[in-house]
Amino acid sequence: MDTGAVRSRARSGHVSLAGALVLGTALALYYAFHDRLWDASLWWDIAFLAFALMPACFALVWLVLPFRTWRWTMVLAAAFGFLAFVFHVAGWSTPENFCKLFGVTAVGFWFLGYFETLSWVVLVAVIIPWVDAYSVFAPHGPTNVIVNQHRHVFTTFSFAFPIPGETGAANLGLPDLLFFALFLAAAARFSLRPRWTWLLMTLSFGATLAIAAVWRGGLPALPLLALSFLLANADLIWVRLRRVERGARFARTGRRSSSHSEP
Question: What residue ranges do the domains of the chain occupy?
Answer without folding.
Answer: 3-68+116-254
